[in-house]
Structure formats: C-alpha cells, structure tokens
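Posting this for the archive.
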Amino acid sequence: MKILEKRQQLLLILLTILVFFPNFFNDFQLAWDDQWQLLDFEFVVNHSYNAMIYHFTNFYQGQYFPVNTVLYILLYESFGFNASVYHAACLLIHVFNALLVYGIIVNVLAFVKRNWTIARIRWFSFMVALIFAVHPLQVESVAWISASKIVLYTLFTLLAIRFYISYIKSGKKILLLVVALCYLLSFGSKEQAIILPLNLIAFDYIFNRYRNVKVRLREFYSTVLLEKLFFLLIGFFMYRFSVANNLGTFDVETYPLYQRLLFGMSSFMEYIFRFIAPVKLYYFYFFPIEIGENLPAYYWGYPVLILICVFFVLSQYERGNRLVLFGIMLFVINLLLVLHIVPMPRKMITADRYMYVSIVGIGIVLTWLIQWVYLKKKHWRKIVITLCCGWMIFLGVHSHERTKDWQDSDSIKQNVTDLIERRKAQDKPVVNNPLKGGLHEEK
C-alpha cells in the first residue's frame, strides 16, 4: 500500500503542476496590489534588522503579513524581481498544501473508518486532495502573487493540524508548542489564520475526544478544554494586536443586521453553487445594493435554502455520520469571518480566495456522497464514474484556462469589465468599482 500512496502523491503533484502550468508565464499584477506589496515595497529591497523588527510589530497598509514578506525577501535575494519565480513559489506551496490535505485525510479516515480497507482510505483521501488541488476556485489564490498570503497561511495552518493529530495520537505535550508556533507563523502570513482554534475543535470531534465528557469530566476539562484555552488566548492577543493597529474593528457605516444575515446566507449558498458548478467566476463580486437600499426580493429565498442544508445536517447527525459532519464543520468554520454577519471592511460580497481552505470540508462531503451512491446504487455505478471523471476533467481544464486570465493587469481587468457590463445589462448596481483606482487585497 505504500506504493499506492507514493503513486497517488506523485500523480497529485503532476496533475496540479499541469493544471497551473500557465502560471509560469504570468506577469506581475501592476494594477492589483503586486506593486505595493512587492515591487514598490522598500522593505523587500532594504531589509535591515530595525526594519524587520518594525515590520513584525506593525501593520502595513492595513494588513499584517511579515512572514509572507520574508518569503518575498528570500526570493528577491535569490532571483530579483522575476515574476515566474514568485508564481512558481506560490504553486509549490499549493502543491505542499495538497499533499498535506492528502495526509491529514488519510489519518482521519484511518481513525474514523477502521472497517475500511487501506486502499479505500487512500482513494477517498486522494479524491479530496485532488479537488482541493485543481478546483477553479483555487486559481485566484495560486495565480495572484499578492494572494500568496493565503497559500502560505494555509501551509502553516495545515502543518499545525498535522502536528495536532500527532499530539492526539501520542499525547506528547511538546507537540502543542509546535502547533502554537505554526499558529503564530500562520497569523504572521495572514490574519485570517486566527480561526485555527475552531479548526482544532473540529479535529477533536472527528477523533472522538468528547466521548468521555460525562464519565470523565475532570479529565476532559484538564485536557481538551485547557488546550483550547491556550490557543484561544493566543488568538485573543492576536485580535488585540489587530485592534491596536485599527484592524479587527467593526465598520460604523454598514448594512443593517437583517441584510447582513441575508448576505451571509446568500454568500454561503453561492460558495456551494460555485464549488459544484464553477462557471462565470470573476475577480470581483459586487454587493447587490448600496448601504440604505432595499434588497432584491429573491434574497428572501436564501433562508429556505439554508433550512434545507440544516435538515441535511440534522439527518446526518441522527445517522451518526461523523465524517460528513466533520466536513461541514471545516467548510463553515473557515468561512465564518467572510460571511458579512459581523460587519468587516470588505468591498466585495464574496471572493474565490475565501474558499481556499473550506474546499477541503465540502470536498469531504461530496466525496462521501459520491461513494455512498456508488456503493448503494449499483446500477448507477457507470453513470457515477462517468460524471465524476467528466467533472474532474472540467475542473482541471477550467482552472488551466482561468490561470491565463491572471497573465497581467489588462487581462484581469477585462474579467472585471465583463462582469460590469453583465450587471449593467441586468440593471444591477456596480458597488465599489475596483477599476477606479485599484483595490487592495482584503483580509
């Protein structure tokens, strides 16, 4: 079975590189953040000790990414401002992330599905990792140099989870310090990493660490909860650090609560729709209205769709399907900060890059569903295999072509222009037009 593992990992690497191969020929995005985050960022060129200390203890342009900047410095010192090198680095990190996803899912299934064969576990894990690796929603995070923060913070987040799994298995407390270090490095790459403690709780659930809550409450408090308190304290200090730099605070001028709730529901469903059918993807997704305006009537249909999702979750809970519940937890947890329920300074209602980590969760759910249909409906097997192969080929080809959209600023501007023309044709507002003065990559 080790041979199968090696072959799957090699295939995962080759397919990912093949899908994103156009990335090696893409240029910098001179009108879309690469200039201020890299090319015109003096610290990348002149990185003295004092400048390094300042950069690690302060925000820059409203964002905190010193670890990511260290990556830029290393690349600059070795290759200068060669766009292909920076794109290659983003792709390499993405490949590592896919391999980590594969390893993490193998470990989860080996614990949860002990009645499964090793081959079944590895093929399930390979499917989830491949979806994560080649899905078109990942293109923005991989093909945009300024979004390297996303692939980098995810790398440290996945490493933290991998070490946390090792801690659960071995009980070695020193591994918690390694997890904490990865947590800090992840936050130093992108502030969105602050959500890690909730991800750890999801892994506590799937590894059944809550099974003895009633009979061994004292042990539960002294281990599971105390561990989370440690990481929650780290997260709290990260949040206070953000507030001290005027980040992490709520917008005063924002949409009313009921509209934000509907935004959250619509965004949640949109991410599901785009995962299943990733067509008409854009760099920028406009809010449907200006602040103070009324929402379109169709937005009230989203609560119905959310209820359907809730019923699905409850049905899986009643059946004791912990794997699906775990996947849903990962999907929701890693979207919590970008659903607009809490008013944060974001100019777009959704973004492909916000799905980078959450794809792992929904990938687990979809792979389980495909497997369930395949095993329960034997007369549908040929149809299932055909549809799965067709869908995966579509994902790879679409990602390959969409990577070319990120060739330079003119090509990605055309992507936004197409959306603007489409909205105007549908008599929809163009809120926070990014073509007017450019747009910073948001948290």
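Residues 2-425 form one domain. The radius of gyration is 22 Å.
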